[in-house]
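Journal club side-thread
Mid-discussion, someone asked how the predicted structure for our own chain would compare to the paper's figures. Pasting it here so we can look after the session.
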Amino acid sequence: MIECDAAIIGGGPAGSTLGTLLKKQQPDMKICIFEKEQFPREHVGESLLPGACQVLYEMGVWDKIEAAGFPVKIGATYKWGKTDDLWDFELLPSEMFKPQERPARYKGQRKFTAFQVDRAQYDEILLRHAEETGCEVHEKSQVTQFDFEGDKIKSIQLDSGQHVKAKWYVDASGTHGVLRRAMQIETEQPTSLRNIAFYDYWDDAEWAVEIGDEATRVQVMSIAWGWLWFIPISKTRASVGLVLPAEYYKESGLKPEEIYAKAIASDPNIEALLKRAKQDGKVKGAKDWSFVSKRMYGPNWVLAGEAAGFADPVLAAGLTLTQAGARELSCVLNEIAIGEQDPEWLLSSFEDLQIRRIKQHIQFADFWYSGNGQFSDLKEFTAQLAEKSGLKLTADEAFQWLGTGGFINDDLGTAQVANFALSGVKLIAQMFAGDDASWEISKYNQFQLNSEGAEKVQYPVYRGGRVQPQLALKRGSKILPLAGTFGKVAGLIKARTKLKDLQRSLVQMFPDDNSFSEAVDTLEAMIQEGWVTTKFKKKDELWEIKTEETSTVHMNRDTFVKDSD
């Protein structure tokens, strides 16, 4: 019998992140990680976002990941939307990125960038780091049986025959969801997307763009019946994958290797990057059907990472969602161990955040697919998506529909959807719809804070291993934090209702361009979600804001099809 405080099922990024952070917060805890495979092991999903890097830094593993020499990700180049023109989403504007000696520290520009990683190497670094931190790691240890007592787990059994008894059991087994399935927890599939992916690895592929010696953007290229990813995971190796509807693949009658080769030949950008490259020749497949669990916790168990939910990979958020959620769970379990806060509030708030976040990513993915005019062979498929979601696809209607998922839904304190700032979301809606996206701010010149029907609640903020209750307003499913940028903007509107006065105060409180843009996005989100009511007075001027290219979302300027010679 193995006895421990926390039994974590799965040694991937969710399990190793949770184990590392919880052990750092509670050094006396015995934390056991049970992984069915022996690391290193290959895994798809190689692209990170800056939020994951913040987690790596908190784990104390940033230096090890940086020393591995993974390419620095500063964004992505897309062929997606109404035309075949390329456009970029940049985490950090490429002209601002300055070459620096590596390994680099987590500061300055590196707080705004991310990595493209070889998952076999990345996951092993994280698991070994968890072990070095003090977690007890059991590889080749598959959980085969659960002993339940109602909704509580009494123990688990390994394939070795050993039993494990713990205070907490965490399912971090990925989409396999071994605990979730054993407990027959229902899942919701908020979308009709049923995609399948085929992928392989290539040596000596060219990069579409080199920014300095180490940085680049991933490539996401639509073809008539799906899309391709191209992710450099080292200076000489790239992950190249195809995503398409499972039904389309079934009807094609092609083998995985055949449809994969056909897809690459369909895009001149990707084909050119691979012209002199050597393919491993081991095309693998994976289903990426989006879902979210209807329950994520019980008396002594919790779901973490992709065991709790999964969103389509088009937004490249999988690893980041996994590690961010594991970090938040570590704060929750640490707080429960400290014993100063209500466990039910901690767990229910955690569950609510994960469900809203995953659903928002799924909804945004639906929007991407239904708004992609490149899918010329999938017009019926995209039309059905649009019809089922009620999406009419004018820019304003698309933006309004996206807002039903909430622009204020995270503890990051910024108005965003799936890591895109609100202004970027408007621009994307405009590009996909082919018409202009307007701003509510520009239609009115009188603003008033609206708290009618709202109740004051405690809103969790996950910081420094703790869960800090912050005051917020809640009305229905909408929440307005009264701290950070939202709190500051709410305070300004409460004191100043006229546009001219509000503009002057915003400039004074948010003097630099980035913070001012964030404040404007915040105000727009508050209007969108009903926290600010508006009026128009003819005698007063309006504030004209246009949806146009920004430093982070703009047409591509430096990625071209490589010379065929």
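Post-session note: The mean pLDDT is 92.
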